[in-house]
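BACKBONE GEOMETRY TOKENS:
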Amino acid sequence: HRGYYIRARAVDHCIRDFLLETQSHQRTQILSLGAGFDSLFFRLKDLGLLHRTVVYEVDFPGVARQKAALIRRTEELSALVGDPGAEGPGMVSTGGAGCSEEANVAPTFQRCCISHGAGGPSVVEFLLRTLPGRSDAVIQWAAERFSKPCFLLYEQMHPEDPFGHVMQRHFSRMNSALRSLAPYPDREAQQRRFLGKGWTACSIVDMNEFFTCCTPEEEQRRVQALEPFDEYEEWHLKCSHYFILAASKGMEPPWTPLMPRLTAPPGEGPVGAAGVVPAAACAGCSDTLGLRRYGHRSVLLKPNVVLTSGGFGEEDGQHGRVRSLHVLEKRGGRWKTAWVGKENPDTRWGELWQRFSWLRQFPSWVTFPCSMIFQTLTCPFPWLSFSTGEEYLFLYGGRSAKDPVLGDWCFLHIPELSSAAVPVEGAVPERRHSHGACGWEGGAVIAGGLGAAEKPLGSIFLLKEVDHGFRWQPVETHPPLVPRYSHTAHAHGGKLLLVGGVWLHSSSVPGVTVVDLKTGLCLDYTIDADHLEWPLMLHNHSSVLLPEEQELLVTGGGGNCFSFGTHLNPEPVSLSLSTILTGP
């Protein structure tokens, strides 16, 4: 719902701005190429915004006929259109060519009285992928043929990252390949494209930036409160792969309905890479279907043994909450997989299964206690060892059915997991969920997360032990940490490792970020996954640090990719950290 809403909101925003800026003109026109079943005209007409404006919609004849028939059958729509005429609501045949041939479209425009010359300003809204191979010609044609033209474009970008690969695969399966993506993969390329085709002004923002900067905060809160929502990663990834572009020629002042920030806030600019982390599928893994999951936890039970529990994925042929426990074991330098269950012939894990089979009786919370019981320093619920010898499990933040973001915490005493009152002083971190957390020097580290108003955070806090309890202490990073969430966190040798996640307003995807917890130095490393045969999505994943091997084992991850289908990482992946862990 949000994904389709943001497109309509962006187009409405720009068209209304056009009507406002041109209200002193006697006549303006809106030309929608590839209009489909868009209801823009009816929304504007119902609001009384078309007194001096004519709206023209162009599409293939079959689409236009279906839309005309739908309008005729709907009393409210027919009333807004007025006299439908002989062929339907403003419908004139192009002889079957749609808008793909100028030779056919031009006479139709003339018959419809569409002004090319000295008339008032015109705005052209276009779905460019409706004209594969001809989009550049259309952009140049509009700049040359109209007086004071404006152009509005909503399209995809960033085809080469993991989400982009899934997006391209979806459209290819629909026989609607995104042919403009390769030559124009990002915002800068699109701006050069329009300025090189005769347009004198061009502004462009991605849909994350449009929602946060061009949508009033009251409207943002209204949308966020409409329905229960937890697909934050999918929402932000989709919005980072679509843009809205507005170009103009001959308008004084230039038409600029999109007002992007001239400078990005700290931590949201381009990310420079300090190095590369190689990724490789774990050779020897088989029967990894049980690891195609997300929202789960993986922990190191003992050397060379990793347990994965909880999350969502496919089990017994159905998608839903995963109840099975899954074990990875390294034998002879290769990771092997083993199911944990009553049916498992490997009896070494039978006792383990019996100890936790009672969790299957509580489907509403099986994931939570399962992931908490097997705690190490690699999990989002750090294990704290006090100087007195007592051990606690520290739980911070999250969300609930009532509160979209929490900022409280609790200490669970080991082994009975009873809540304990432990004094904590210092400035309290901002409320958050989907953050990274791990243990460090008898305390804990929390990093990033999604805060209030669904905005990613870039802050890091230490929970340090003091004489009478703990104290919160912020970590100042330089350069500032790029805000992110849905990542994993590990601490080793004074370094904090943040793996994957989702961030906004950057042309790259998160890899591995290393923060020196003593000095605050922050370095970003890209992940080289070119050798993998599938897109590696590092959100909703789990990871285990193996310091002796100088590697990270990543399990699961991914999720729903808007309307493009679901992608879950099919195999465990090893990330080599030799450069990071041995560096200064």
